[in-house]
From TrEMBL:
InterPro entries, A to Z: Glyco_trans_8 (IPR002495), Nucleotide-diphossugar_trans (IPR029044), XXLT1 (IPR042465)
Gene3D superfamilies, per the entry: Spore Coat Polysaccharide Biosynthesis Protein SpsA, Chain A (3.90.550.10)
Keyword hit for Ribosomal protein: no
Biological process, per Gene Ontology: protein O-linked glycosylation via N-acetyl-galactosamine
Residue ranges crossing the lipid bilayer per the database entry: none
This protein's UniProt keywords: Transferase
Any one GO CC term of the record: endoplasmic reticulum membrane
Identification of the protein by name: XXLT1 xylosyltransferase
Provenance organism: Hylia prasina
Keyword Secreted in annotation: no
Encoding gene per record: Xxylt1
Gene Ontology MF term list: xylosyl alpha-1,3-xylosyltransferase activity
Amino acid sequence: CQVIVHDVNELTEKLFPIVEAMQKHFSAGSGTYYSDSIFFLSVAMHRIMPKEITQIIQVDLDLKYKTNIRDLFDEFDNFPEGAVMGIAREMQPVYRHTFWQYRRENPQTKVGEPPPDGLPGFNSGVLLLNLEAMRQSKLYNQLLEPAMVQKLTEKYHFKGHLGDQDFFTMVGMEHPELFHVLDCTWNRQLCTWWRDHGYSDVFDQYFQCEGEVRIYHGNCNTAIPED
């Protein structure tokens, strides 16, 4: 087993010019902080990792594995043609909230609606990045261009604070074909913040997850169940 450690400062230096333009739309702070670039690592991983690395799984720290993560690698085989990454849906109505203006202007939209038919957005706690597909995808690389980011944020009136997750969510509204949607059991989020902040009536439509959990995600400092 070979372990390679990457220097955060070195990565940030490569990342910053690629993601600088999108940071002002998807960062918590106002303005563009150099150090914030690391929250966009997954977005441009294909540009800064050596060419011989073709697939990467990127995960948050607040996870608990109930199965062998090797099984997650098998999901790469399920990617439809054109998909560049695997990602699970967001399990709270956070994007119902974020897209409020677009939803008001487009009352028939699926944007921000709960599964199975809606587009609730994504959660980036567990990410399968097919770096080779990301490098080859003309569409995906066009979407990283500042002008395209600007165009989409204007169309959707989007202002977020969750880094790469916001970018993938917005892109997924426009180009769902770029994403292989992971089953909720691969990223069973536990945070219930939005239940108590104005969305108790619809919360459970987003939060439900059938099946045996393979990865728990204790997001927003939520306790993960003991075995």
